[in-house]
Amino acid sequence: MREGGTVTFMTPTIATSAAPPPALAIHNIQVVYGGAIEAVRDVSLEVRPGQIVALLGSNGAGKSTVLKAVSGVLDAEDGVIEKGSILLNGRAVEKDPAPAIVRQGMVQVPEGRRLFQTLTVDENLITGAHLQSAAKLAQARDFVFSLFPRLAEMRQTTAGYLSGGEQQMVAIGRALMSQPKILALDEPSLGLAPLVVSEIFRCIQTLRETTGLTILLVEQNASRALAIADYAYIMENGRVVMDGTSEQLRRNADVREFYLGLSSQPGRTSMKDVKHYKRRKRWLS
Amino acid sequence: MRSGFFKQGYGELVVLTDSPAVKWWTAALLVVMALAPFVLGNFLLSHLTIILFTTVGALGLMVLTGFTGLISLGHVGFLMLGGYAYAIAVTRWGLPPEIALVLSAVLPALFGLIVGIPSLRLHGLYLAITTLAFAHIVSAAILAGGELTGGGSGIMVERPVVLGMDLSSDRAFYWFCLGVCALAVLLVLNLRRSYVGRALVAVRDNDIAARTMGISLVHYKLLAFLISAALTGLAGGLMAIYMSFVSVEGYPFLLSIEALAIVIVGGIGSVLGAVLGTVFIVTLPEVFASLMSFLGGRLAETMTTSAHEVKTILYGIAIIAFLRFDPRGLRGIWHDLRHTWVHWPLRY
Amino acid sequence: QQGVTDTEIVIGDILPLTGPPALLGVAHNLGVKAAVAEANAAGGINGRKLRLISEDDGYVPSRTIQGVRKLINSDKIFAFTSISGTAQAQAAMPLIKQTGIPAMAPITTYEGLYQPTIKNVFAVGYDMRQAVYELVSQMADRYPNKKWAVISQDDDYGQNVRDGFERAAKEKKLQVVSSQIFKKGQSDFSSEILKVKQAGAEALMAGGVLGENVTMTKELERIGHKIPVGVTYVSRVPASAKMMGSAGENVYTVDYVYLESSPEAKGFMGKLEQHLSAEERARVNRYTFTGYSAARALFAAMDKCGKALTWDCTNAELAKLKNLETGAMTPISFAADDHLAAPKLFLLKADPAATTYKLVQ
Amino acid sequence: MSAVQQTPVLEATRISKRFGGVKAVNDVSLKVMPGEIVSLIGPNGAGKTTTFNLVSGVLPPSDGQIRFQGRDTAGLKSHQFARLGIGRTFQNLALFRHGTVVENLLVGRHIHFRYPVWESLVYWGRSRREEIAAREKVEQVIEFLEIEELRDKPVSQLAYGQQKRVELGRALACEPSLLLLDEIVAGMNREEKEDIARFTLDIRDEFGIAVLMIEHDMQVVMDLSDRVYVLDFGCLIAEGTPAEVAANPAVLAAYLGEEGAHA
Amino acid sequence: MNYFIELVVSGLAIGAIYGLVAMSFAVIFKATGIVNFAQGEMGMLTAYTSWSIATALGTDAVSTILVSVAVGAALGLICERLIMRPMLGEPVLSVVLVTVGLAVVLRALVTLIWGAAPHKFAVEGADTIVDLGGIGLRAGQITVIVVLLIAIAGFWFFLRHSRFGVAMRAVASDEKTARLMGVSTARVQAVAWASASGLAGLAGAFFAVIYGLAPTIYEIGLKAFPATVLGGFDSVLGSAFSGLFIGVLENLVGGYLPSTLKEIAGFVLILVVLMVRPFGLFGEKRIERV
Ligand SMILES: Nc1ncnc2c1ncn2[C@@H]1O[C@H](COP(=O)(O)OP(=O)(O)OP(=O)(O)O)[C@@H](O)[C@H]1O
Ligand SMILES: Nc1ncnc2c1ncn2[C@@H]1O[C@H](COP(=O)(O)OP(=O)(O)OP(=O)(O)O)[C@@H](O)[C@H]1O
Ligand SMILES: CC(C)C[C@H](N)C(=O)O
Ligand SMILES: [Mg+2]
Ligand SMILES: [Mg+2]
């Protein structure tokens, strides 16, 4: 984002009261795919207004599944929330369809971009603002272009022809078009160049600071995520195995080794020096 | 529950089934099928015969649409070519029926190659429509075929003697179809588990990736059309023998659709699905017919004129309800049943 | 014999109950049903009640074969009161011939049904080819020195129309300027009719089944080419007259079945009233007459066989049938070497105002 | 690298690719020697994936020459590249999503089957033997990549990172002499990245496969690569050892940013 | 020359009906990515229903048109709600097959309710022959051409200037993600079905008025297929114009060549066109990338 500040299109939430109710609260959900595969078991987490909460975990841990459950799109993959509840601003939404959830101000940037390939960049953005008035649409679009100037040049390009990184920018921009109150990001830095990654994280932070946007962030880049998150959960094999403030986690030895790549000795280990393949599931104990 | 998760050689990994139970059941089914004519009445026997040769055709479409993902709305064209190839070979050229049956597979296969050529450039519905156009053109050509094809009047064919079997007996014809069908199922199963079958599926799922694996799209799409058309043509030949008559009107567009229905209801991409789908789609209308005469009694008599409509409506609703209930098709239901059976009372 | 029990005789018919000519098949079926109801009301045939099984072939020959096979092999019927359209009957003939089951062929009569005589097949009606020949000849007499065109369907039925037309054209030395064949099921005839006009034709033989003929006359009207049109008796139903409307002013046909309004048909219409529901009566047309007549002829023969009802006896009795009055058409007779009951033909002209056809004197 | 005379596995000379008016790749030359791990980096949209597409035959170059082990690839059909010994993974997963993991890997071995098509219908004798041999090879790959538990799962049911691993397996099953990896560690956590890094090194060391990879993760690039090429707007802007490249101001400006270099 | 013009003009009249049906195919495809095989049947059912309504309530031309649009749209909504809605998100082929099932049901339903006999759909003035410089056209035929032009203009405006049009395409492109963005895919589908059935209903009603009411009207669906393909499956306007074009082509073929060729003229044409443009004349190109 070009020097912050100018972002005024979102109504700031009042983040004053001592313990505001969580913007998003998940209680003990269990998700089953195809009536047979249990992908998420007994997961609970909470995101307070204005917080950035990170959700970390290895491949297949169930992070994306949690986000899909929150957004109400599990049914498209034959998944169901078997147990538990999801509260958005105190309202149970686990049975709501996706558009209803968007209307309540929660939008997701899905994993793997999932652009509307045959539509142009502009049309992708317009779809993102589907529930917005025309005036707000223009405003939101200007904001997105200020965030990703590269997209402004590619407005009329068919999205399917963009490079991976450009697609990711469109995906994030598209979600921002609806001016959400809660934003769920599934691996936003995936496939982005370092310069852009920095930019994205800076922008997430600025968004939060200037607009009070609440953010649930699924990331593999743990050091980045922990750097901006207030609180974080770590998932393994469909369960939350650890949670705490970013500070606490950053100090945890396991997290340091397996997520931040910092061994007990000072200094960074070169990837070349990793001598053996590490085994998973040690969190299960 | 099955045991035997431990394999002693890699050979065991490529077998069609590693379950003794499945082997036993298959053998039992074959024996029962072979003995069926001794117990079944005329009607059921001819119904089974229809199922058998329809399965052969359905397998053909399964190879093309199910494996390779090329949707065809014109399979009735291959069926028609197969039927006419047989009829013309036997009645016009006086060829022996064995050779005529081979022709009924070969001629459509050649046409399959021609129809396949557009598939290299066209995708999805556009290809589907070209196959539809092909079927239309075939029927127009046959109508204009004069003496050779009998134009609009069609050709009568007698039930032949094939390999010493006199097919004019319904039983003999049943056994013949059973043999052909079993062979076709086996061949397609083998095809599916070989590199050829995997290449076809790869083309369906991701043609660019398939190309980088060294799979030539031209080669395999044409191959799919070739095999598919040959099987469907053979089914056409059998159907001509069964009907003893070929005419252009005997091959309405609806047959293409029913073939697709078989493939989809059965479960895309599965040989078992093709078989189950055929049984389902071929039997469904008969079930409704007998249901109506059973329930109807006098009612059925008074509504003879609407009976056909009621039957058709029930048929349509059954298909809709079925897909609504389980869009993965019969194969999906089959897997669920098996899963429940194996895991019960646990759910996961 | 199959289909016969102590109390019951099962008979069957196969007809286009769906598809383009369903109107005709359904009406025909009603005629058969009326005959069955009448016979049953009178105590059945030698004490056995009749039961009718109707099969639909949708006007598709291959389905006719299947249906015939089903009726003979599964339903085990004793006899056929009717065998579908021309191409359909043609396709089913070998099967019927082979089994020897008594079969009436009252829907469209053509040479293949009776020449050479088939032991168990009896055609009730006027030969289609012959009828077209008569029609064209009579029209040629009324409208001498006209240039002619013919448009016909691309199947056996159309072939019969063409054959009859060509014979008439040859004998009457007609100048034929356009001869077109259309694909069964076609609905738009604008190019065909423009072609007729372009060729300078002054009279047309329209060889469609029903809707096709209607569309052709309406197209003629639209392009302002008012010429006399001949249609086959197949089209001689109220619906066609109604649909042609003012375009039907110059439409001729020949038929051997009494007009619904004629005095001869009065008794028959009364019977229909008795045996059919109001809803069914709304569907009645000339095919009801043919269905009834054929069934009556069959029943008469079966009746003569007495208790020992067999196929051979029925076939033999049918061949001996003389001057059977049905009240629906002129009397029916067969002979051992003549299985065509060719009743008398009348020349008819459409009467758009009354949405029917009327006799031409 | 010892012998200078060695023929490069891959040698692209001044290749370009235009899409309509856009020059996605502009006059790029690059070379991969046997046993090398080479990285291709650059900002988003720089043309890296397009370069891969050219090199692996997915797209024909508008200009330039691509030699593979000394052999000119001009005029080759795209499916023929695999037979030259090029295996690759895709940035946006391109698995055969209806198949299981094993089936996907077996497709990877496609070019190694020798028996004629019709024998597949028989599945006996030669065809069966070859199928068994292929299966054996695939099991080795599965073992190597430690995806035993996923073996019979349909790939559509796998999580993103698992799918990437299967893609790697599929490319390995090809037994290529050059492996192209397009952002393979994207979407993996540190631990998994280390695994992949280890695999990559082993692939090179044990199987002698040269690797050309596109990567945005600088640690992986810096730690593994023997050499690095940097693309920007379709043009090569730098080339050299990781350290040289990381110090290049043009690269810093266009790609790494101040902090990226040591992130 | 006059002969040629007469062929062309008559072709436009039937082509306008193809055009309406072709448009309706394209509308549903554009919004949901599926082909509705019951489109011709929707037209037929609408024609019959409108006929029943018209015979009961009198038959002036304008109200007949309005009734058929309304009936068509209502039928579309009902089918969407009862049959298509539950199929949202299911594999394309399954959904397409459901429409085939629907077609079978509707076809039989029409015969069941109204019988197989053809009827005249009499609309005041529809049969009047209007003389256009020596060429006679029935008022009904002229009206259908005009109606097609109005529909083209309407849809052009709708697709060009409304965000709903964009949302429709988004749904067709990726249903799940569209929902993530707050697009109610159900509503998009409902609107698509309603408007497509309205178009098909118009086509069916006009066909019935011009050629008579018969249970074979559904064949306009099959006849309009080539038009949709020619225009491009996702090109609503392209399909409309292609309908006109195919109507004219058929007539010219019928007029100058043996008339049996007329039935396959459209199909032969699309074969040729697709070889040159694999996605129709105005269709969107498929994205092929890795
Ligand atoms: N559609 C599906 N059907 C069946 N199983 C699924 C499906 N989607 C995911 N799974 C399974 O659920 C588990 C969790 O998947 P999920 O995508 O949530 O993981 P993730 O934490 O997001 O991993 P990644 O970091 O790789 O994206 C995985 O083991 C996966 O195999
Ligand atoms: N098939 C295509 N048609 C049109 N433009 C294309 C096509 N493929 C790529 N491009 C364009 O070429 C440029 C380079 O794309 P490419 O995918 O090679 O980038 P990249 O370096 O891989 O980027 P990233 O790191 O984001 O994946 C982009 O601007 C993209 O929009
Ligand atoms: C009942 C009618 C359909 C008969 C028609 N004339 C035919 O012979 O084909
Ligand atoms: Mg994920
Ligand atoms: Mg890329």
UniProtKB/TrEMBL annotation, chain A:
One of its GO terms (molecular function) is branched-chain amino acid transmembrane transporter activity. It comes from the Bacteria. Transmembrane segments: none annotated. Residues 24-262 form the ABC transporter domain. Its EC number is 3.6.1.15. CDD domains: ABC_TM1139_LivF_branched. One of its GO terms (biological process) is L-amino acid transport. Keywords: Amino-acid transport, ATP-binding, Cell membrane, Hydrolase, Membrane, Nucleotide-binding, Transport. Belongs to the ABC transporter superfamily. This is ABC transporter-like protein. It comes from Hydrogenophaga intermedia.
From TrEMBL, chain B:
Its main location: membrane. It comes from the Bacteria. GO terms for cellular component: plasma membrane. It is a multi-pass membrane protein. One of its GO terms (molecular function) is branched-chain amino acid transmembrane transporter activity. It is found in: Cell membrane. Keywords: Cell membrane, Membrane, Transmembrane, Transmembrane helix. The chain crosses the membrane at residues 24-45, 57-87, 99-117, 124-144, 172-191, 222-245, 251-284. This is High-affinity branched-chain amino acid transport system permease protein.
TrEMBL record, chain D:
Residues 10-258 form the ABC transporter domain. It holds the Pfam family BCA_ABC_TP_C. It comes from Hydrogenophaga intermedia. Keywords: ATP-binding, Cell membrane, Hydrolase, Membrane, Nucleotide-binding, Transport. InterPro entries: AAA+_ATPase (IPR003593), ABC_AA/LPS_Transport (IPR051120), ABC_transporter-like_ATP-bd (IPR003439), ABC_transporter-like_CS (IPR017871), BCA_ABC_TP_C (IPR032823), P-loop_NTPase (IPR027417). Coiled coil: none annotated. This is ABC transporter-like protein. GO terms for molecular function: ATP binding; ATP hydrolysis activity.
From TrEMBL, chain E:
GO terms for biological process: amino acid transport. It is a multi-pass membrane protein. It holds the Pfam family BPD_transp_2. Its main location: membrane. GO terms for cellular component: plasma membrane. Keywords: Amino-acid transport, Cell membrane, Membrane, Transmembrane, Transmembrane helix, Transport. Signal peptide: none annotated. Belongs to the binding-protein-dependent transport system permease family. LivHM subfamily. This is ABC transporter permease. It comes from Hydrogenophaga intermedia.
